[in-house]
Amino acid sequence: MYRLPSRYGAYAISLAGLVVCLLGLALLHAWPWGLGVLAFGLLAALGTHDLFQHHHTVSRNYPILAHLRYWLESIGPEIRQYFIQSDTEERPFSREQRSLVYRRAKNTIDKQPFGSQRDMQAPGYEWMNHSLAPTRIEDHDFRIVIGADRPRPYSASVFNISAMSFGALSANAIRALNEGAREGGFYHDTGEGGLSPHHRQGGDLVWELGSGYFGCRDAEGRFDPERFAETAGLEAVKMIEIKLSQGAKPGHGGVLPGPKVTPEIAATRGVPEGLDVISPAAHSAFSTPREMIAFIQRLRELSGGKPVGIKLAIGHPWEWFAMVKAMREEGDHPDFVVVDGGQGGTGAAPLEFVNRLGMPLTEALLLVHNTLVGAGLRDKVRVGAAGKVISAFDIARTMALGADWCNAARGYMFALGCIQAQSCHTDRCPSGVATQNPQRGGRLDVPLKAERVRHFHANTLKALAEMLAAAGLNHPGELGPEHVIRRISRHEVRNLATLFDFVPPNALLSGGAAQHPVFRDYWELADPDSFAPPASVWQLRQSKLV
Ligand SMILES: Cc1cc2nc3c(=O)[nH]c(=O)nc-3n(C[C@H](O)[C@H](O)[C@H](O)COP(=O)(O)O)c2cc1C
User: Fold this and answer.
1) Is 444 in the pocket of ligand 1 (CB under 6 A)?
2) What is the residue with the minimal CA distance to atom 29 of ligand 1?
3) Has residue 546 been placed in a domain?
4) CA distances in angstroms from 18 to 7, 12, 45, 61, 107, listed in the order given
């Protein structure tokens, strides 16, 4: 006798239930049977649809039941976040990291009772050495001057809001960030989506120009100097940042789909409403390192002497070396370089880019810092860094490795109330931070969140001041790699000064950095007139059949 496979059980029960309820309704005319008809009818319809559709084999084999699996799978991240993962293991940011930001943003207790939850014997564990001669730091508003030799230098906080566009973030999120920056005296990077009215709440701005030149482009999408000068001249714009690449998706352009190009976004970006907006992968205003330096000079002039810098994720080392050689040969340089680590965030990017492209922050920062030191430019070019910098220790470690200041994107998103739902790309952000849906974004209370942004910044720097005082220092600029120690194995620890190579000042100019393979292999070969690979790399490529 044929036995119906048990996987069809739910469908069979739904059909049987529908028949029974239909009979009950016909014979007894009581409304509960009507409810049964509705419920079993819907399930039976779903099961029939599952059986006859062709997109999902699992649904054809398991009508109705497959949906239970899909649903459980869809709420898996939440289940893991709420019930399974420990305080320190969740990614990209652990519960411990997020709750530190929430507590600092809400200005509530940020102390840890009883002791550390860290496994201090685990390889990779890092700590900072304290001193027996601690200092006393009264003011935690640590600042550095960028573009000191330019007509309009900028005094920046050491912890600022990294680039996130209006478009990626909601209007209210941008407003709250900018108000928080104004109140706390730190800067807010516009992101590459242009400078919108929401950015103009009185906070200091770094205006970012991506390859789409939003807010300063002509009808063909090319750089428009007049429109640039107009916006760059605004008092709130303190510096200009040319975005070359982003750690989470280096070398990947972007498309903002037409339906998302609202009248407000169209006006901010200087593009037609309702049409797809393309951000090309590369800039059209320059195509060689030397041309890039000329473009930087031009922007500086057009902005009335404000500091101009670049933001990049490190890829091929010879391309970065070529830029530094162009700086030397042209006798001019960007006022700052912001290094974005491969672990950096994004609203949306392909998984391979997020996971596998872009050098992680430690290595990228070391390369940038060492090259500038070796080329005799480090005293002229300030270095910023971003990539999962969220706590005072993260800032201290990053500055110890060569950064002059740090930026955070997702840290400030948490301060706004982001819960790491990771739905930035769906327009259904539950906290109203990363959405263009006016209902969702509109519920974000601007004055309250601005205050949290300010508190997060101030309390993080207060914690940094306490760490520095314990280490016997007065300013984070005094930190060096010798202050941070890493466990290599259960029986070996090294301080970062001995773990990593540091190039002596001017060593690249005299051939003295040759012991490090990356400098030995590529520094001499890098060409300030081209981003193309050196001949030795071409030769390797030609050894393959293509
Ligand atoms: C929602 C979102 C939007 C972003 N948009 C930009 C952008 O427009 N331009 C840019 O240079 N970086 C952008 N980034 C990258 C951040 O500025 C930052 O460099 C990176 O996330 C590393 O910082 P974090 O680890 O503190 O998030 C974005 C990041 C996020 C999370």
Assistant:
1) no
2) 346
3) no
4) 19, 10, 10, 21, 57
